Automatic annotation (TrEMBL):
Binding site for Mn(2+): 53, 108, 191, 195
Keyword Cytoplasm included in the entry's annotation: no
Signal sequence, start to end: 1-21
Keyword list, A-Z: Metal-binding, Oxidoreductase, Signal
GO molecular function terms attached to this record: metal ion binding; superoxide dismutase activity
Entries under Pfam families matching the protein: Sod_Fe_C (PF02777), Sod_Fe_N (PF00081)
InterPro entries assigned: Mn/Fe_SOD, Mn/Fe_SOD_BS, Mn/Fe_SOD_C, Mn/Fe_SOD_N, Mn/Fe_SOD_N_sf, SOD_C_sf
Segments forming a coiled coil: none
Positions of the Manganese/iron superoxide dismutase C-terminal domain: 123-223
Protein name: Superoxide dismutase
């Protein structure tokens, strides 16, 4: 009888510890896997860059974010959007870390999904109509977007963003700042940190941008544009 009781106690302890482990894990951010293989964007974005970018750089943002939140359980379980929209409520000792690393997590998660193999054709549908309406033509849009990406001094991003009325704009953000705080919805974005292109393109950021158009997932952009 004693053995049965001891076994039951052990079993309960195991279930409780598993549940709390799951709960803890659920509150940790994780890097989402790519929806395509590491070499799927070749020859425009090389496999080694994708592996390092996704597995090392993005992983580092997520690891740093989780570590910063370790001492503030009340912030665990919040989304990156919630953290970034309320960044001034994040304790000052981790605010900059959260801003940079939650931003890095948000931006990169967006970036992996706005790229896809064999999607290099021009957009169709509502996003194309909006681009032509707001920038005159696809060619002019690409020219302005490329310029914004080139003009970003140091590290950052260039974005195509939509406001509540559907109007599009091109914005460049520094470091891992996001467009969330601007209240605008991202439609496409390019990472122009050197880690995104240096292995293949070295200092030629313009060549990387030109090549990147071949992997833009315009189907996803159309979905995003059609969402509220
Ligand atoms: Fe990056």
């Amino acid at each position: 009888m004693k053995k049965i009781i001891a076994l039951a106690i052990c079993l309960m302890a195991l279930i409780t510890s598993s549940a709390s482990a799951l709960e803890t894990n659920d509150k940790k951010f994780v890097v989402p896997p790519l929806k395509y293989s590491y070499n799927a964007l070749e020859p425009y974005i090389d496999e080694q860059t994708m592996r390092i970018h996704h597995d090392k750089h993005h992983e580092a943002y997520v690891g740093n974010l989780n570590k910063a939140l370790d001492k503030y359980p009340e912030l665990q379980g919040k989304t990156v959007e919630q953290l970034l929209l309320n960044i001034n409520k994040v304790p000052s000792d981790i605010r900059e870390t959260v801003r940079n690393n939650a931003g890095g997590h948000y931006n990169h998660t967006f970036f992996w999904n706005i790229m896809s193999p064999n999607k290099g054709a021009n957009p169709k549908g509502n996003v194309m109509k909006a681009i032509e309406r707001d920038f005159g033509s696809m060619d002019n849009f690409k020219k302005l977007f490329k310029q914004a990406a080139l003009d970003r001094f140091g590290s950052g991003w260039a974005w195509l963003l939509k406001d509540n009325s559907g109007k599009l704009s091109i914005v460049s953000t520094a470091n891992q700042d996001t467009p969330i705080q601007l209240g605008l919805k991202p439609i496409i974005a390019i990472d122009v940190w050197e880690h995104a292109y240096y292995l293949k393109y070295q200092n030629k950021r313009a060549d990387y941008i030109d090549a990147w158009w071949n992997v833009v997932n315009w189907d996803r952009a159309e979905e995003l544009y059609n969402e509220r």
